[in-house]
Amino acid sequence: MTFEDAGPPAAPPPAGPKKSLRANTLIVMLGTLGSRLSGIIRQQIINTFAPALTDAFLVAVRVPNLLRELLAEGALVNSFIPVYKTLDAQGRRELAQAFSGLLIAVNLLLMAAGIFAAPWIVDLLLGSDPNVDRELTLFMTRMLMPFLMLISLSAIAMGLLNADEHFRESSFAPVAFNIASIAALLILPNTATWLAFGWLIGGVAQLVVQLPALNRFGLLPTPNLKGHPAVGRVLKQMAPFTLTAGARQFLNVYVISLLSNAKQFPTGTQTGYSNAEALFTMVNGLFVVSPVLAVFPRFSQAAAEKDWPQFRALTASTIRTTTFLAAPMSALLLALAPFAMSLINLEAPVGKDDLNKFTAGTGILLGWSLALVPWALVTVLLRTFYARERTREAVTISAIGFVLEVGLYRLLVPGLGLIGFGLSTTISGLLMTAALIVLYRRAVGFPAREVTGHLLRVVPLAAVSGGAAWLIARAVPIEPGFILTSIPVLALAGGVGLAVYLGGALALKLPEVAAVTRRLKR
């Protein structure tokens, strides 16, 4: 079944009852958990390759990833869904056909341009004195460019399903990507060619698993280039979003160039950064992005109906939920970063490059742990602007924030080392949060008292739980570095920390933990 030969039925199936927001959140969180856990397994297998090979691969895969957010995942979710939700069934079908056709055409052009311009792109990323093999990076960059098309088609499918609150298939699609990639890594030869090819196999799997659901719900589009009046509205939304995505990619390019500088960092640093990124995105995706993704269609609906009391209530409840979950995770990552990084290592570090990789990952994860709560606030607030189609304000703040983060990297990383990455992200996140709250309050009135009161309780409580976990980890005579010896430490120290946090939340009568308790009693 393909997009070309399987269009939607003549009439869409009748709409079912409005789905439970709690059920949607749980589905997305389970899908994210499956995706992140399988992603950790994939990262563990990649880490069995030589650091020189994985450094080159991880730079190469960044190239299509630099473009995917500009054209696919971020732009589609934040620009397409609010417009899509305002149309009737026929208008939605026509918009999906026109928009998917346009996106495919643009991706084909960019894929060809990326393959042709790969030498210049790689030189831009690596700089003049790289600790990464340039020729190997160039070879894998060209092999991986078709991934941009695969992930863009997958993003179209995911956006259509999420817009109608069909979260199950779209949430578990990344699991299919990881499973297919893991199978390829285990079965195919241990070479650069098959390492890159395994990534493409995963991209195919992520797209294919969503097609049956699109067809079943009458959402599978037949792409065309006929155009649709609403495409202009989507493009208008995407245009300023491209500004913030471009700023973020400027940040990513700078980070790649910085990490690959042999004068400042040794071989293995690039892979250590990717390992820290895998762990951090697992936590952030599960406890921050998932709840926000599940509630985003409700934000869009409330904005379309101009139900601002409901919109403010959704804002407050979503901030409370995400920060209630993010705060203890931030504290536990800060307290247990070396043991958390050990989850990547199927073997204890042996040799200089392996030790460099582990040290780099630990330092970066330690700094990023501080950024989890500020970026939870940014994640929620940005979606409230996209839902109201106030994209220009949101992306301007985001773009300024990312440019500021690059400046902070230049200021802090040389003196503080790897932890400077996380501190820069934390500072920029706090400043972006403040700016977004000011703009939000001017437009619809921000629920400041409720949010502030909640944060003044959960953040200190999380700090206490992190301190308890740190003391337990120090008392255990086990050194970090190997997964099998680190899991018991994480289970014991992390369990104590979570128990302290939940016990304090019960004592403070926080409604979030009370809701969890009620569900457990059912």
UniProtKB/TrEMBL annotation:
Q: Which GO terms describe its molecular function?
A: lipid-linked peptidoglycan transporter activity
Membrane topology, record value:
Multi-pass membrane protein
The protein's matches in Pfam families, at most eight in alphabetical order, are given as:
MurJ (PF03023)
According to its UniProt entry, one GO biological process term is: lipid translocation
Q: Which domain of life is it from?
A: Bacteria
Q: Which residues cross the membrane?
A: 102-122, 142-163, 170-188, 279-300, 321-344, 364-382, 394-412, 418-443, 455-476, 482-508
Keywords from the named record: Cell membrane, Cell shape, Membrane, Peptidoglycan synthesis, Transmembrane, Transmembrane helix
Q: Where in the cell is it found?
A: Cell membrane
List the GO terms this entry assigns under cellular component, sorted alphabetically: plasma membrane
Q: What NCBIfam families does the entry give?
A: murJ_mviN
What is the recorded name of this protein? Answer: Murein biosynthesis integral membrane protein MurJ
